[in-house]
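Troubleshooting log. The previous run stalled partway through. Resubmitting the same two chains, unchanged.
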Amino acid sequence: MKSVLPVLTVVAAILAFWLAAVVPMNMHLVADQAQRDGLEVSPETPVARQEVSGVGLAFRNPHLIPLTYDFVRPRLPAPQQVAGEMYDTIIDKKITSKRSLVYHGWVTLAPTLLGFAIGTGLGILLAVGIVYSRVMDRSVMPWAIVSQTIPILALAPMVIVVLGSMGIQGLFPKSLIAAYLSFFPVVVGMVKGLRAPDAMQLDLLRTYNASKAQGFWSLRLPASVPYLFASLKIGIAASLIGTIVAELPTGARAGFGARMLVGDQYGQPLVSWAALFAAALTAAALVGLFGLIERITLKRMGMQAA
Amino acid sequence: MLAIAALVIWAAGWWLNVRLANGAASDHAVVRVLIPLIFGLTIVVVWELLVRGFDVNPVILPAPSVIVERMLNEGPRLWADFQQTIIKGAMTGYVIGGLAAFGTAILADRSDFLTRGILPVGSFMAALPIVGIAPIFVKWLGSDWESKAAVVAVMVYFPILVNTVAGLRDTGPMQRDLMRTYGAGYWPTLMKLRLPAAMPFIFNGLKIGTTLALIGAIVAEFFGSPTVGMGFRISTSFGQLALDMVWAEIVIAAIAGSAFYGIMTLIEKRVTFWHPSQR
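Second attempt completed without errors. Output:
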């Protein structure tokens, strides 16, 4: 709990930086608009204003500064504008509305969770295979490690379109990407976890004449739980990012990714920013949820959470 | 016919690997490299045979031979894309983001209060879908490589920051006391003890950053780019249903990603030769 104050300080510093950046980022747009509304602006022509930096323009027109925080189509919206838009689209709008971020959030979250469940399940199975089969360890494991260095996420939109052209649409294509992205972190983490018991512990089970299955259920699997949770937290974040990127340039009509792009293309920056922050909140909530489950599980098992 | 051949080759490859992995020489360095190579090669051959055998539409999945042919024919164009996306976009952003993170970490390190604030906030930010800022940055900085470098810089900033800050805290009180008995001030302690001790952590962050850099550079190009670049080529080739070109870019991206990571691992080995994980 002693880190609450430092964290708040850092967050406040970031907010202050953001607030300060709003003025120069929007100054030119605000000055153009103010001139059209008949306010006094110096320098007087838009061309002359392009020569002056945003900060310089703010110094020469201090009376315009408050307007930068309340501009309709800002380059950089002010924090309270984003918060207002989020409040509006998350709480005020009906969930069934096409403008509700809760609706769009669910469109993104459902394939993320489905894909994550599939990816985690298959990942654990492969990890068990790798730990118990030398051939799989030697032939698959190097590729599992190499595959993590490949920017596969960049291809997510293409996967969606290929599957779409084959007539597969809806939940499944996005889940596939989410599954792929959570698969390898789980494999690598689980292999490490299942191998975590040391020679002494394995020897003890041998002196008990325990079978391979008993060794798995009562030693290897419990020992792998902390590693599994570490991987799950990486995997769920990766799954969510994968789903959002998959929605970005594919002409998807719903989901966080689609909202970000729609706001960008139709000159509604607030929509983009609200979607971005809502996505961030969702990611934080998911990682936080797994952190909580981790803490409870490890406590029940008599291990200290790492 | 070809499908049966694919099955036979798959079985043969697996049988060979079982023999090698359980054989007497299984721990030999050559065999260790050979086994994954055989596995990879069988997959490529089976892929080729299945695509030909079932006459799979090249719009869905082109055969490996077609992809390789395309790569050989389109050399100059692929090279131009590589320069635009990897060298200009990803590398510039990676260096800027890395230096910024390193600088922030060194500055914050002087205050224990700041460090305790930065660690949780930074690891929180590192888990967020930061790629989402790509459309915004492309709008701010134009469609050339500058906007891609900016996206990459922001994406790699947080993992490197968190790891550097964590690494700088990794020295024990005994070690710091030793430096104090030598009469070493802040800077000598930083240069001779704490920075070297932080290196394994810093390289961990740098290695996480390599993949993020490529992802950021390619994804940002989907939102606007000059008529060159890997992301641009992937999305336009896709529009023309030239899937072999898309796959050619994928292969380049995969090689570039692994090479980038590999280079970082090599540098790490030279720098942190003393760490238990390297011995």
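Takeaways: The CA atoms of residues 133 and 212 of chain B lie 14 Å apart. The radius of gyration of chain B is 24 Å.
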